[in-house]
Design brief:
single chain; about 160 residues; globular; 2 domains; mainly alpha; Four Helix Bundle (Hemerythrin (Met), subunit A)
């Protein structure tokens, strides 16, 4: 009976350990996702920028225009909460359109999702959803995502945002 009891204790301990490992992995993946960290890193397409399509180019150009128009107020710390909400709404709408209409090849699409994830994280922060994080930080995330887009995706006449 003590051998059987010992086996059941070992099985229970093994199950508990596996459960804790699985929970830890899930928590780490969730934490990485929440902070915009992904196992996939931005890469070029064999040394070249990824191809784009018209919906992507149009949406990104619109986001760039909106962010450029607000840049001075963002940097000066003078953009109101209402304006951040409006900006976040416009960027979020454009991102939604990009996701719905964009038809990139799978590898380019995977790279685009890294940019989109950063943008959506920035949108949430601009909406005031981040705890102890300024809305300005969200705008900076969107601006960084636009820079990343320009560095990795081929959009003719794309210009980095400048103040």
């Amino acid at each position: 009976m003590s051998a059987t009891h010992g086996i059941w204790k070992l099985i229970a301990a093994t199950g508990l350990a596996l459960g804790l490992v699985a929970t830890g992995v899930a928590a780490a993946e969730h934490d990485a996702h929440q902070h915009g960290v992904d196992a996939v890193k931005m890469t070029l397409d064999n040394g070249k920028k990824w191809a784009t399509d018209e919906p992507l180019r149009k949406g990104m150009a619109s986001i760039r225009t909106e962010m450029q128009a607000s840049l001075h107020e963002i940097h000066a710390g003078k953009l109101s909460a209402a304006r951040y909400n409006d900006l976040a709404s416009k960027v979020g709408t454009e991102v939604g359109g990009i996701v719905a209409q964009c038809k990139l090849e799978p590898k380019a699409d995977a790279q685009l999702h890294l940019v989109i994830a950063d943008m959506l994280d920035g949108v949430e922060t601009m909406q005031g959803k981040g705890k102890n994080v300024k809305r300005q930080t969200g705008a900076v995330k969107v601006l960084a995502a636009l820079e990343k887009y320009g560095n990795y995706f081929d959009q003719p006449n794309w210009q980095p945002i400048k103040e």
